[in-house]
Write a structure and sequence with these properties.
With about 150 residues, the chain is of the alpha/beta class. The chain has one domain: Rossmann fold (3-Layer(aba) Sandwich), CATH 3.40.50. A 5-stranded parallel sheet has the order 2-1-3-4-5, sandwiched between helices. α1 crosses α5.
């Protein structure tokens, strides 16, 4: 069980938010999940030290690239510049299969680049990757990784 940790989920699709929550629950990850549905909200949470998310508790950022009001690439750029959050692993979970998106995302520090799966079983399986990232273990063998 993971206690006293936070996961920032940057996702604008309520169905995907639900599936990610279920995937974390399926693999026993108990954490505070902060959901931001657009890029402006994400930037507020990561840049405002007083009202944003506590850097010491943040264990993982799950980031969709296709967010309204600041996309995931811009968020990755800001994270790369942040001394406060440089230690937090970022998993890009997106519908984009663009090689350019993957190249830019990994160059900007994303630890994993995963395409959103098409089946429920595969989506729930992502919880293991997230669990390993939250626990600080190198997640290996991910299906759907480009």
């Amino acid at each position: 069980m993971i206690d006293m940790s936070s996961v920032l989920l940057a996702e604008d699709n309520p169905a995907d938010v639900y599936l990610i929550r279920e995937a974390l629950k399926e693999h026993g990850v108990e954490c505070d999940i902060r959901v931001a549905s657009d890029g402006k909200e994400v930037l507020g949470l990561i840049e405002d030290e007083e009202t944003g998310i506590a850097a010491d508790d943040l264990r993982l950022i799950i980031l969709d690239l296709n967010l309204p009001r600041h996309d995931g690439i811009e968020i990755l750029e800001r994270l790369k510049e942040s001394t406060r959050l440089a230690h937090v692993p970022v998993v890009v979970l997106t519908s984009s299969d663009s090689p350019q998106d993957k190249l830019v995302a990994t160059h900007l520090g994303a630890r994993r680049y995963l395409r959103k799966p098409s089946s429920l079983e595969q989506f729930l399986g992502l919880g293991l990757i997230f669990k390993e990232m939250v626990e600080g273990v190198s997640a290996r063998g991910a299906s759907h990784e480009d």
